[in-house]
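Hi D.,

Good news: the full-assembly prediction came through. Inputs first.
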Amino acid sequence: MKSGELLLRCKICGNLVAAKTMHYTPDFKLICDDCYKKLFPPSKSQSITVKKPLTLKVKEKQSREWWICNFCNYKFSVKQGKTPLKCPMCGRSNLEKLETFTEKLVQEAITYDQEFDEN
Ligand SMILES: [Zn+2]
Ligand SMILES: [Zn+2]
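Then the structure:
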């Protein structure tokens, strides 16, 4: 720690800590970073949102196009502008682009990127 750095005493644990690392509580107590994290842990719902696949799907919906295989009825999405050459399920090429899709379809369909992203 550099000399001359302003040290303040945490109102909770009593430790002397660098002022710039401290936090104010809603009732204007100055407390250290450790105590702040204990008192106000990052909300759990936030960290779950990051990994939630459903959120990702809804976000991607705008930039994806949905296709259905006329042979096996397999539904899948590719990035907008990509044209799948064959059905990832049965390998046949009688695919039809879906101009409209429902929320239910989005849930059912498989997001399929690996092969088509190559071309
Ligand atoms: Zn403290
Ligand atoms: Zn198919």
